[in-house]
Design a protein that fits this description.
With 121 residues, this protein is mostly beta strands. It has no helices and 11 strands. Strands 2, 4, 5, 6, 9, 10 and 11 form a 7-stranded mixed beta sheet that branches. A 4-stranded antiparallel beta sheet has the order 1-3-8-7, with no helix packed on it.
Length: 121
């Protein structure tokens, strides 16, 4: 089994900062990429940021310059540092890991349960 667990959400005022953490654990052979998505009420889930095992990173235009994704490969952990938060960043943030399990020959996506981030104006 594989588990993906997020932590670090909460309530913050506009202009503040939060740091999200996500750890993947279990029978993991290789993690190809990890990232963060978010879903606001009434909206579709959208990519926020991702990072590959080779160091490639990608950000949504709306968070560039404010959010930073980083990764600890040894611990199968990814972080999202969120600065200069805005009310429109309010959403449930989901961690995603694209990985290959031990004993399998294909990769697929695993998702965490999500963590709420609320930014007050």
């Amino acid at each position: 089994q594989v588990q993906v667990v997020e932590s670090g959400g909460g309530l913050v005022q506009a202009g503040g900062s939060l740091r999200l953490s996500c750890a993947a654990s279990g029978s993991i052979f290789r993690i190809n990429a990890m990232g963060w998505h978010r879903q606001a009420p009434g909206k579709q889930r959208e990519l926020v940021a991702l990072t590959s095992s080779g160091g490639f990173t990608n950000y949504a235009d709306s968070v560039k310059g404010r959010f930073t994704i980083s990764r600890d490969n040894a611990k199968n952990t990814v972080f999202l540092q969120m600065n200069s938060l805005k009310p429109e960043d309010t959403a449930v943030y989901y961690c995603n890991a694209n990985l290959r399990r031990t004993g399998e020959f294909f990769s697929r996506d695993y998702w965490g349960q999500g963590t709420q981030v609320t930014v007050s104006s």
